[in-house]
Amino acid sequence: MSNLENNEKILKIFSNIRCLNRDQLPRYLDGRLTDVEKHLVEQHLVDCDLCFDALQVLQQQQHREKYLPMSAGMLQFIRNSIKKVSHIHKAERYHRQEQKRESFLIYFWGVATILIIAGGVYLVQQQSKYKATAMPRQLAQADGATVHSASTETIPVQAAVVTPVPPARHDSAVAQPKTEAAPPVTVPAAQKPAPKKDSLKAAPAKPAALVTKDSMKQPPAAKPVEPKIAPAAPVQKDTPAAITKPAPKTEVAAKKDADDEKEKPAPKPATTDINSTDEFLYKAAMVYHQQGDLNEAISRYKHLSGSPGRYGELSRYQLAVCYRSKGQTGKARRMFKEVVRMNGTMKEKAQQALDNL
Amino acid sequence: MLQQLTNLSDKELISRARKLKDQEAEGVLMERYSHLIVAVCLPYLNNGPGTAPEELYPTLLQRLSSSLKTQTISRTNEWIHYTIRAQQAKTDRNIPYFPTTESREQQLVEGQVEKAASNLKEQELLINKMQKALKELPAEDKYFLQKFYMEQRTFADLAEAKKISIEKARQRLQQAKQKMASLLMNETYE
């Protein structure tokens, strides 16, 4: 047992012990320490020069007297300096914290205001967009309401007015003759009485302007008709009813035209260029014809009638149709006769038209 | 705050004073050693120009404070003692404090003992090693160490038995301890 204790005691040689504290120092000097405490102090004193020196100094009475007040003064001095420092430190820390808090608040409110402004702007934009989209709708609704209430007929009329123009230009060669053939049949039916009544009254000056070389050769069988009737033709053409009614009647003619058009390009491949330009011009004239611009159509047909090909014949025939629809039956008859004389594909139709006149 | 700081060890206070520039920690450290500083400086007071207590102590504290920030301090008491001696010597050249080889050896052995305190097996090994080193020491040193540490004799007893002064007895003990520490350290290196 004693051996074990000794063994453990050997460790004391290298055990670290703290310096003498403020209380132990005078007690050691006075010999007021317990044996264990004294031994611990002495163990520390073996290593610590500072404590040993202090004890050596304090063993002298003269220094001992000075020690207590000076030690107290030193302690006070250090504490005061710490307090001052700590006070300044605390104040600084508080100040820094306050600054941090303030800056944080500033940032926070800055961000908040920016967000609010951005949100406001966004909302306003959204609202304006909504208004912009809503307004046309409302207007459209309002218009729709008025239109519906006013008359249901206006809508088909509008549709009819708008639609015919583009399809006429893009129509294939097969489709066009159908529409083109429409006026010849309808116009005479509607305006047959007109030439009879007005032909006598009609001024002889007008035909002079419109008369061509051909018309000069042939004496006018009938006097030209008044231009009053002309506007009537386009109206009839534009209305869907007018187009649908004559369709079955003109089917035969249209088919013939289509057949002719199919047949022609095959034997004449060399003259395709002339034909293509003629065809184009013919179609352009047809468009004017369909739109009701008879004068323009007539001038174009006249221009084409000189061409030697098939389109010359076709354009003469159409010229005759135009004259007829204008009421200038004399000119119409003359043109039909010319077509018959040309002995082309349109001979029969021209003969029929002549018979009908 | 001050209360919390007084419970900290010297090392912790020094590291706080350095890393956090905590002047309170520095103050607490100075306060801990102030009575010893006062006592050690007493014989040098009023000995010449600049040695008045109102002058000497603040300058000493200032010196310690500036030294604290730059120097490696392994033992606070040694560092303070060194600084006081340096000031009293009034050397123009300020040689920084650096622990001696002996001091470092002692510290290492102290560290080993402290580490072994929680491990019985390690403790046993260390005891064996120390006993071996003790046997290797000269008879005089062995005697002082055994009497002082094992038999818990006081300085006065030892001085009386050997008929030497207390100061001398302490010195002999210190030397014996130093020898043992170097023996232990050399043994571990081998």
From TrEMBL, chain B:
GO MF annotation list: DNA-binding transcription factor activity
GO biological process, one term: DNA-templated transcription initiation
InterPro entries, A to Z: RNA_pol_sigma_r2, RNA_pol_sigma_r3/r4-like, WH-like_DNA-bd_sf
Parts forming coiled coils: 113-186
Keywords for the protein's UniProt record, in alphabetical order: Coiled coil
Domain of life from the UniProt record: Bacteria
Protein name, as recorded: Uncharacterized protein
Lineage of source species: Bacteria, Pseudomonadati, Bacteroidota, Chitinophagia, Chitinophagales
